[in-house]
Each structure stands twice: as structure tokens, then as C-alpha cells.
């Protein structure tokens, strides 16, 4: 549904209002900025920026790259060619791409280069305590942060202007709240897309080359030397100065008692809870507009900083010699937090009512979908007491205490090298197994596999091939049979790649063939050679696999030993029966009929 | 009395169609010219995790995407453990609409913690708020799968409670649901109206 805005004189339609979430609005902003290339890697909460861009704006070249570093490098190359480019990832992904960002920071920028980075503030989707603004400080590059969908679109366009004007990559920080909040955006429906080419610089080099030029050729005006040099500190100084007059930074001087410096969605929490407060609302959170901050500091008795995530603005403001109240009043646990209007009200509004959650409501740990192939692997590893490392994949749910299938789990793509390290340290006396998803394998896990082979490791790797990146909603990977740029002849085969890398023993099994899968894993683990077991089953949720007849538990046979519950299937529940006793039951609406639970039951109570 | 706006929390589990529910409801309010902010909080995992949607419509600009505890007018919940999680967020005169559907949590299933001894339905009824309980098991139908379409049943119930135009709401459902599900959803909608009428009776609509 849209609202239409007309020009009163000409009665011509000039704009329409649409409901968009932050991810949609960023995609729209990219379109209106004339972006030519979008690359990146899926990651909650910002995955849908790419999905919307690809779906709605066919003029923009889109790709899911093999990982975030590759994605950013693609965008950097496109930017050097003169076209506006964006790289999309989450902050955890930017850690992977940090080397590429360091290379681009401070270098000559032709077409604007913007990184759209999703911060999972408050761990809404279960992410780690990351804050992308640290990269702004570390690499001395600007960071913009929108407060709603309208700003998400507008700041996207501004980010490209800043990138080109000040020759710098720019980070647009979006959060789980921005990405998943829908609000009105005014757009020009008749906007004509145009990707302009801007080739200002004939070369673009990393700072290593530039600083070497600066040191060795100081004062030289020879064009062969000067073209290699870009005075990046001067650009950032100029941006910091100019930011005092940017419209995206708004100073609202009102009440003299309380002043707040804020950005992102916390701006709206502040305006709702403290309608009289004087506010400096930043759209550009890095570098800071020093003059505006000093003006507000002079105007008010008490100055607060209210920022989601780490205490980055607070530290940067204190570095300017301006005293502000931040984490002393709003402690960060352990080092970051997501603000809510309630938190601000509790601390800054006298006599605010306190409301507390009812006691004893059971919590929910993440659970795998019923019928997920990961459940089969978790079950076999646990049952046979095989020590294993999990990766970042839906299978990591097997690490949680209701499943206890894995003893080691770190970052995306890590499990192969983790297992190898363990096996090297323990002289291969016990075989520590690596489990990895197809997404993690292609992202960076493949490096672990190459490393494992040429360093003569005897480790076993289980690759769970569910034909997509399931955890982020089913995006394509190199071995998928779909994707933005998919062609059957370009599909990579996991087994063939493993063979080419030099893996000695490679077996492919269907996850639902339980006995065969168990036998294959045990054979691989017990053999004195390196091996890969590829477990195939398309993601039940992404590909909407057809259900088989649901299983049920015959209560006359059930001894409540709970072996079936320990599988971790969403469909198996421990419930109070009408007579008050506890029953183990299968929810027939959720059951996929995969039968895994029946293999765990020694009493033949689980029937089809 | 003109409705200047309300704060609604929609709660439940991944896979229950909560995002579709809030999307359909948003179209209704958009048509009436309201400002809206809808914020979805989605946990880890594709299925079975907690989902909450903060839904605010107003004649004035909506500021915070999150509703402060104590400011919620309506709590619409598709799972009764989740209902309990938001009861304290309701205003004094807030109203609860809750399904009796319950999915045991992983922590209770694996005995990491004990379940609450009381009946959750009773706890909701005793919250001191005006409460409407919808039991999907008592309303099963051969014409549609209530385990999948409780969102549409709830939409109809809410529309009846608010005395909204069912024709307008049905039109929105038709326009926004995949064609192969339209017939089933319309049956679910009819069911929702009949459940609501049975419970609301002669209740005067003050909202």
C-alpha cells in the first residue's frame, strides 16, 4: 500500500510513500545512488539488502561471493573501474574482510565504495558482541548510521557522495533493529536509474605504497610520483570539519538541563522518553562534528551519550576533552548493550514505573528444524562418543547443552583446521572429527582442507551439503543448483574439489539412510587416512521437503528414557498429560517423518 | 471516538506466520492513513525460536520502534509460554488474545530446567487483564490446517473485536497470500469470526 504526494500547483505526482524495512530501504538507496555492482556474503541481519537489490533492481549486478573478503575485493575492483559499488556483510563477516578494507582505506577512490555492514546489537539473532565502528577508528574511515528506513535510504546516497568527495571507503552501519523495522519511506517512483562512471584516478594503491612515496619523494611534483600519492589524513580532516554543517547531523537545542548525543534507533527512544531534552542526533557517527558537540555541551547542564553497542562515540568525545556521561550510568554487559526506551526511562525519568517479567517462564534454546540432516550427524557423533568440532552452520545447535554433540566450535569455516590442530597436538592418537556445512566449506573451510592435506593430516571431515546457506535463509553457495548468476556448467562439486585437493577417501551418503551414514562415518573415523564424508540432504526449510507419515509414541511402550528427546528434534516434546503425568510426545504437525527418533528408541515405542 | 493509535505486541514462534500477520494488519492501517512502525525481533534458528513483533500505529509520527513495558494495548500471542513473557508489558486496561498452543521449550524437554507447575492458560486468565483464549484443538477443521493458519484465525478474531470491516480485511488477505492458500485462509478467516462472535457475545466494543 502506498500513499501518493502531489505537487499542489501542477497536480503532478512527485513522490509516493511506501512501507519498507531497513534492508529494503538500503537497497532502494543503492538503486537511487546508481550503484553498478553489489557483492558480499549473507549474514543476519543484513542479508536481505542483497536479496531486495537483486530482486527489485535488475540494472545492478549482484553476486553472493564465496566469502566477505572476496565480496569486498570485487566491490573495490568495480569501484576502481569507476562505478559505484557496495559490499554487504555482517560485522562478523567484516572481520574476514578486514584485510581488504585496510587495503582500500586511504586509497584513491573512483566510483564510490560503500560497505553495508549489519551489527547484531543486543544479540537479537544470537550474534557476538561486535561493533563495526571500531573499523572506523582503526582505519580512519567514515561511518554513517541511520535511525529509520527513510534515513537508511537517504544515508546510503550520502555515503556514496562522501566516498567520492573525500576519497574513502564508507561504512553504513545498520543494526538488527534498523534491518527488521518497517516504517514509511518517501520515494520517487519515476526515478530513472543510471550508473555513472567516474575515473578520477589512474591508479589506486594501498597506503603502504603511498606512505613509501610520501617518505621518499617529499616535495616532488613529478606526475609519475604524485599520481601514486593520496593525502588521506587531509581528506578525513576536511570531512570532520565539514561534518559540522552536514544536514544529516541535527542539533535540536531545547531544555538546558539534559543534553543527549545519540545516533541510530536510540535517537527515537530518546525523543519518546525525553521529549524536552536537547539532542545532537548524528547521521555521521565517525568522524565527529566537534563544533556541534561543543555547542550542545555549552548549552546543557548534563550531557549524556546514548549509543547502541560499544562505548565508541563516548570515548571519541572524551578524547576531544568534552565530558559526557555514558557507560557509568548505563553499564554495558559485558562490553556492549542494546538500548531500549525502558532503560533510558529507568535512569533519566524520575519515578518511572517498574514492570517485571513473571518468574519461572522456561527459556528457549535454539532447536534444529524437524528432519534436518544435522540432527542425524549430531546423533551419530554423540551415540558413538566421537569427539568433534562444529562450524558456524545450523549444525552448531548441536553444541548447546540440550544436545551436547560437539566439544569445540569457533568461527565460520574453522572446524577443519581446529580438528587438524587437535590431532597434530595429540599425535593423531584419537581422531578428532570436523563437521562443516557447505556454506562454511566454500567460505573459508576449503583453506583448512588444503592445509590439512599438504601438512599430511589424517583427519576426517564431515561436510553437510544441504545445497544452500541454510542459517541465513537459504542463499546460494558454489555447489548450489540455483543462484543469481547460476549456470549448470559453473556449479562446483564438493566431491570433485576434495578429490582435486588430494583427499584420500571421499564418500557421499544420503543423510536419511541412517545405518549407512553411521557405518560410513565410523569407517572413516577408524581408518588411518584423511577422509571426507559428504552428507547430502537439501535443507528441509528452504526447499520445503515433502513430509512422510508422521511418527508417534506408543505410551504403552514408552519408558520415558528420553533417548529420543536428546536428539534435539523440534517435534519431540516432554509434556504434561491430562492426568498430570509427564509424557513424551511427537507433535504431528511438526514431524517430517524422517524416522531418526525411532532409531534411538530401544523399546520400539516410536511408530509410524 | 476516533482511534488515534495503539501499541500491539504479536508474539509466538518461528514458522507460525507472525510476520505475515503483522504485514496483513499493517496494510489495513495503511489504508486508513495511519503512521506505522513495525519491529520484528527474531531469534536464532529457522523454526521454533521466539518471535516478537512490536506493532505501532498512530495518527501522529511513531517514534520508538519498540514499545515500552506498560504501554502495550493488545497482546496477540500464538503460543502460551510466549504469552506469559509479555503480560507485564500490557497497560492496566490492556487486552490479551492467546492461543492455547504450546510447544515445550528445549530446556524443559531436556530437563535443564523445570516447567512451571501451574497451567499456563490459567496463569494468563488470572493476569487481571481482559483475556480471550483461542483453542486450536477445539477448532480443527477439515477445510484448512489450523496449525498453519492460526494467524488468519487470529486476524479475524481481532478484526471482529475491533469492529473492523471484514470485507476490507478479507480483500487484504486475498491480495497478499499465495493463490494456492487463499481458499484455506478464507475458511480460517470465517472460523476466526465465528470463534470471536461466540466469545464476544454482546460485549460492547469500547476500542
Describe the structure.
The complex is a heterodimer of chains A (about 600) and B (about 210). In chain A, about 35% of the residues lie in helices and about 20% in strands. With about 600 residues, chain A is of the alpha/beta class. Chain A folds into four domains: about 1-185, Thiamin diphosphate (ThDP)-binding fold, Pyr/PP domains (Rossmann fold), CATH 3.40.50; about 250-345, Rossmann fold; about 375-535, 3-Layer(aba) Sandwich (Rossmann fold); about 550-605, Alpha-Beta Plaits (2-Layer Sandwich), CATH 3.30.70. In chain A, the strands form six sheets. A seven-stranded mixed sheet of chain A has the order 4-3-5-6-8-7-13, with helices on both faces. In chain A, α11 (about 265-275) crosses α14 (about 340-350). The two termini of chain A are about 45 Å apart. The model of chain A has no long low-confidence stretch (mean pLDDT about 95). With about 210 residues, chain B is of the alpha/beta class. Chain B has seven helices and six strands. Chain B has helices spanning about 20-30, 80-85, 105-110, 120-125, 145-160, 165-175, 180-200; strands at about 5-15, 35-40, 50-60, 70-75, 90-100, 130-135. In chain B, α2 (about 80-85) links the parallel β4 (about 70-75) and β5 (about 90-100). In chain B, α5 packs across α7. Classes of the chains: A alpha/beta (about 600), B alpha/beta (about 210). At the A-B interface, β9, α11, α14 and β22 of A face α1, β2, α2 and α3 of B. β9 of chain A pairs antiparallel with β2 of chain B, so a sheet runs across the interface.
